[in-house]
Amino acid sequence: MDLDTLKLNPLGLTYAFSIYREYMEYRLTIDKITPQTKEWTSKVHLIKKPRPRKSKDGKTRFQIVVVQDENEDKVAAVLYGEGIEKDAHKLTPFSTYLISTAKVRIPLPYRVPTNRFEWVIDRFTVVEEVKDDNIQDPPLPPPTRLNTIHFAYLQEQQQNKEFGNHNFTHIIAVVVNCGSIKYDGANSNKCREIIIMDTGMNSFILMLWEDFDDVDGSILAAQVAKYPVIVAKRITRTTYGGLSLSTRYNSVILINPPYPQVGRLQN
Length: 267
Prior knowledge:
By secondary structure, the protein is α+β, with helices and mostly antiparallel strands. It has 5 helices and 17 strands. InterPro entries: NA-bd_OB-fold. This is Replication protein A 70 kDa DNA-binding subunit B-like isoform X5.
């Protein structure tokens, strides 16, 4: 039923608003959702989408994304197996979604938790994108929180260890040079060397390995003349070719994400 029809039918309009009011009563922020919450919908922003991975025994394929709500509270959401491809087109970084009745559980013990709970998106979960032209219930504004580390402090980070994991530390930098694909390491793995610079004009080499070279490296190579800005998380400090940074299996590279800090760096 369209809006013009509802205007001509007051009873229809009343019914529509009653349905909308009932729907909004189930709208909860992340901090209000627990394993005991039975009926709920949460409006969230997808802020991190690492690549799918396999369990140590190789039997289970999974993907952990991170969403945040209007209060910028965060929670990890896990997808398994066929569900990864099923929802791949729905879950794009920095889009807004209404997620309803995902399974809520305590994070598994070997993970560093984003929240006291995590969500599991399965075939019973409803994931609906909030479109940009939705005037009645518009998308969430771009996120603002970034816990960044200055390049001057990178030398203090432990070598070959993921840094900033517990504090969710990010690297934010301009890409000033992007090398070509090469093969290196004990197993001749594919990689690409890029040079990044922070606001203090400090520069570092960041090595993109395997999938990160295929996807992010290709995009950066095409855009390097425009000096793209990246936000990188869960990377490590190495001594490859001297002091440098490197991606890991669970790293996240965001290119020109809509953070205000990125906008300031671009200007």
